[in-house]
Predict the structure.
Amino acid sequence: MAQNSEKFENLLNLALDATGQERERSLQLGVGYEEAGKKWEVIVKYSGDIERLAREDPRIGIFNLINEYAILTVPEDAMGALAAAPEVEYVEKPKRMHFAVREGMQASCIAPVQGARYGLTGKGVIVAVIDSGARVAGVRHAPPDLAPRPASVDQMPRSLGRSVKLRTS
């Protein structure tokens, strides 16, 4: 068990105090914990030189995100050092995502790809949604395979002297 910290979210403190059996039975407590290596994968908000932690303890893995966020892989016995690090502002564990509404799952085409034909589960995949708040106003900013396309020549962008009516497929 690692030392509880005010820098750690409540769920992480609870998970650190839980036994292996309790983590295994819970849908949330074991998320982010690798039993074989006795390591935690955590999301950290930091300021300063987060790489210092890896230099001092090479067992700590760091994957930098943006805006002073990082995903760290930390041995269970080093969680106290993580809490004590002055660079670390806040630490939370990853969460298991659940679909509350079956219609939403069907509308997003999740069920077909998880079926027997494809067998895709997403296990081991980390997904982050980062919203800058910036509006992409033009087609030129979208990747070519995702950009909306004019339905016909008569519907080309106004910059080419036409009115715009876009189709997305």
About this structure: Residues 155-166 have pLDDT under 50 and may be disordered.
